[in-house]
Amino acid sequence: MNHLQKHLSASLIALAALLSTAPMAWAGQGAQTAPSLGMASSFAVLSATPNGGGAVTCTDSIVNGDVGSSGAMASVVQTNCTINGAIIAPVSAQVLKDFNTAYDQYANIACTGTLETAYTDTTLTLTPGVYCNTAGVTFTNTTLILDAQGDANATWIFKIGTSGTGALTGTNFTVNMANGGDPCNVNWWVAQASTMTTSGFQGNILAGAAITLTGLAGTTTPFNGDILAKAAVTMTDVTVTGCNATGGGHGNHHGQYKDHEKCNQGVGNGPEGCDPGNSNLHNPFRHDDDARSNDEDGGTPGNPGRKGGNK
Q1: Cis peptide leading into residue 35 (ω within 30°)
Q2: What's the Cα-to-Cα distance from 88 to each of 67, 200, 278, 292, rounded to whole Å?
């Protein structure tokens, strides 16, 4: 083999190696990036039921963050429930669109690992990745440790029911963050319902059906993350701290605080997508300029010249 042939052969081998490894590296990076929730990211609890059927029931519980429903204001029912945030019902069409778009985008995320159908009386440690099961997954008397390995931006995505059906069920299920992990970087995508009973949970749930959270009677069980469903959300004896709330993580997951956080076009839906009648709301967990809009109270909707109120 002459010098030219040797050089050509070496180049072809190097090119083949590059082509065989580059797609794998790209897929791994892309798979661990959660889709943006857009305007839906501002809610700690959201019932995005189609056709105005949203319902949120909060009993003996605390929610740190905003609560939204696609139903009327009466669809948010509180019984000995404290909501440290705004209640927005109905939410805007843009909120529903953004949530459904993000939910559908999870189908395109490649899996890097698998989950068993059932975990019982065990401790499981998982490093960052995308973990999937084609059907439902049940955790019973189980501790899940999410080890960030010192990376504050480490991301976990769990896809439950990738075949189209499957629920997430936890009983005495504890999720712990380790070595710098952030619960707001943990996302649980579920094809159908999600039910957590006496379970200390970490991460955002995006469920294709109802979400039911039940803690110990008289003791609020902690959930750190956002609770977002395509059906009703029911909470009993729990404390939900959303990712926009103080203590809920870095508060900037899924690109939130971008595009639609500040509104200045007056009360009602304008080009920035503000919820009707709620553009004067103040977020109690924010202390920067985006914490409230510069709309003013009173006056006629759509009239930017009215005086007084929030500036």
Answers
A1: no
A2: 6, 26, 8, 15
